[in-house]
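Standup notes
- DV: blocked on the single-chain target, sequence here:
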Amino acid sequence: MVKNSTENTVVKNYKKTGIVAAVVIAVAALGIWAVSALNSDNGASVADAMTVVSEDAASGANLRIAVIRMDAIQGEAVALKDLRAQKEKYESELREELTRDQKALEKEKAEIEKSQDVLSREALQRRVVDYQNKVTKLQRDLTERAQSIEVSYQKALNELQSKHLDPIIEGVIAKKNLSLVIDGRMARTGADAANLDITNEVVSALDKKVSKVTMDTPQGF
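- DV (later): unblocked, structure below
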């Protein structure tokens, strides 16, 4: 079992902009410049401030550490690959529509240019305004639909993470009695660090639990 409440929450906060990101617990040390800045403050000295800090620290002999590469999970897990394929399908459809609509607008623009010497000034102005309105509407529609694809994708991604990936990682932490899980993209490990990387096990367990999470149909499709 995980030893304390901190260990139980190791994997609770690793979202990053819409996409599945890293699990990191880190302890940072103040640099010399920061200590100097604190010493120059009119408040309590560093020594006085340290009276509220205990001498307790995690013992290296009791720590069980693992590395997880969330970028690899995103690239290798079956459900995540399928989810990306769904998103790319909608994006491809949107690009095709954009190409078709652009051609239609280019044709209309050419026709307007040819009719400059034929139409009255008022009629020409109406056609130009109508053309500009179509361009504006196309730009707005494309932007809204592209955003809708991203919203639908992120919603499915969050669902996969909260319902499937989080429980898998928590289960691995509990089964291995881990104290600390580090983002593998930041870690530097030696060749003799056996059983340190849990990425492949997480991918295998996730694939066994779920193979597909369906995106909601984006608006406009």
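- Follow-up: The chain has one domain: 5-209.
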